[in-house]
Amino acid sequence: QDDTRVKSLVLYFSLFFLVPATFNHTVEDNPYRFNAALSLLGSQGFTHGRHYWEIEVYSSTVWTVGVARESVPRKGVIKALPANGFWTLSLSYGIQYMAGTSPPTVLSLEEPLARIGVYLDYKRGLVSFYNAESMTHLYTFRETFTETLYPYFNLGFLDKVCPGDFLNH
């Protein structure tokens, strides 16, 4: 959603690229805009069904991706945890993959992730993450969802987002 992105983020919709801006530009603040991190929500919200998308991270060393409730806090420093309405997977400074639990669940992976699959089953209350190249399961959150959920991206230095194969049922 363009009105949720932080001011220093430029979206290149036609190429599915999301990159931090390297130039100064003016974007009005609004209550929906994240203001302290390179974060944004996807444009399509989900209140039912099963959905899948993929994110290419390649050599990015800092990122957080997953799902967020529509009502997540957007001002100030926010911890992307289920208690705050986020179900995420992250890479911290190229060193450690973690599921966004409290405390964080450290994931031991045999190889670096280049493409991450995110699967949401709203009715069953599941958010699952996969290595999209091998379809190896990484982590699953179980929750009861009560409001609209959106794809969530905290870019760090995330390279690009791909449309993936959506499963809408």
UniProtKB/TrEMBL annotation:
<dbReference type="InterPro" id="IPR013320">
    <property type="entry name" value="ConA-like_dom_sf"/>
</dbReference>
<dbReference type="InterPro" id="IPR050143">
    <property type="entry name" value="TRIM/RBCC"/>
</dbReference>
<dbReference type="InterPro" id="IPR001870">
    <property type="entry name" value="B30.2/SPRY"/>
</dbReference>
<keyword id="KW-0732">Signal</keyword>
<feature type="signal peptide">
    <location>
        <begin position="1"/>
        <end position="24"/>
    </location>
</feature>
<dbReference type="InterPro" id="IPR003879">
    <property type="entry name" value="Butyrophylin_SPRY"/>
</dbReference>
<dbReference type="InterPro" id="IPR043136">
    <property type="entry name" value="B30.2/SPRY_sf"/>
</dbReference>
<feature type="domain" description="B30.2/SPRY">
    <location>
        <begin position="1"/>
        <end position="169"/>
    </location>
</feature>
<dbReference type="Pfam" id="PF00622">
    <property type="entry name" value="SPRY"/>
</dbReference>
<dbReference type="InterPro" id="IPR003877">
    <property type="entry name" value="SPRY_dom"/>
</dbReference>
<protein>
    <recommendedName>
        <fullName>B30.2/SPRY domain-containing protein</fullName>
    </recommendedName>
</protein>
